[in-house]
Amino acid sequence: MKKISVIILFVAVATSISASLVFNGTIDIIDEVATAIKSGDVSNVAKYFNSTLDLTVPDNEGTYSKAQAAMILKEFFSKNPPNSFLLNHQGSSNDGSLYAIGTYTSGIGAYRTYFLLKKSGATYLIQKLEFETN
């Protein structure tokens, strides 16, 4: 009985540590994307793009390849240079996807920003990125 209790305790601790590492890794990805958006760094945002993704910016909405989406985002950042980006909410859905909602502010205006990351292999990639006028 004592051996079973020790084994159960060991499995519980190992599972807890593993879950913590996975959760912290996902938070890091959200923070890295948020930091790249805050600085208007297209290449650091695009490194998390899936091979195709849904992108919405003012006057442009569609499903684009990674390269096309990077060009559109670069144009958006050049027309709307970042002043700030604040994460308002982040979480996960039942299917394991991660999401974040924030406010991107430029000298021209503020945009409600949403991005959705889906697991692809061992990492999460951006499946959807939206900048909508507030």
In words, what does this structure look like?
- The model is unreliable at 11-24 (pLDDT under 50).
- With 134 residues, the chain is of the alpha+beta class.
- It has one domain (2-133): Nuclear Transport Factor 2, Chain: A (Roll), CATH 3.10.450.
- The protein has a six-stranded mixed β-sheet, covered by helices on one side.
- Strand 4 (98-106) and strand 5 form a beta hairpin.
- It is built from three helices and six strands, in the order H-H-E-E-H-E-E-E-E.
Write the layout of secondary structure elements.
Elements: H1 2-39, H2 42-46, E1 49-57, E2 60-65, H3 66-79, E3 82-92, E4 98-106, E5 110-120, E6 123-133
Parallel strand pairs: 1-6
Antiparallel strand pairs: 1-2, 3-4, 4-5, 5-6
Q: Unreliable stretches, pLDDT < 50, 5 or more residues?
A: 11-24
In the sheet with the most strands, the strands line up as: 2-1-6-5-4-3
What's the CATH class label?
A: Alpha Beta
- Which CATH architecture is right? Roll
Determine the strand fraction and express it as a percent band.
35-45%
Q: Element order, helices and strands?
A: HHEEHEEEE
Shape: globular
Number of domains: 1
Counting DSSP H or I runs of 4 or more residues, the number of helices is 3
Major β-sheet profile:
6 strands, mixed
CATH topology: Nuclear Transport Factor 2, Chain: A
Could you give a short description of this structure?
The protein is built from 3 helices and 6 strands, in the order ααββαββββ. The chain is an alpha+beta fold. The protein has one domain (2-133): Nuclear Transport Factor 2, Chain: A (Roll).
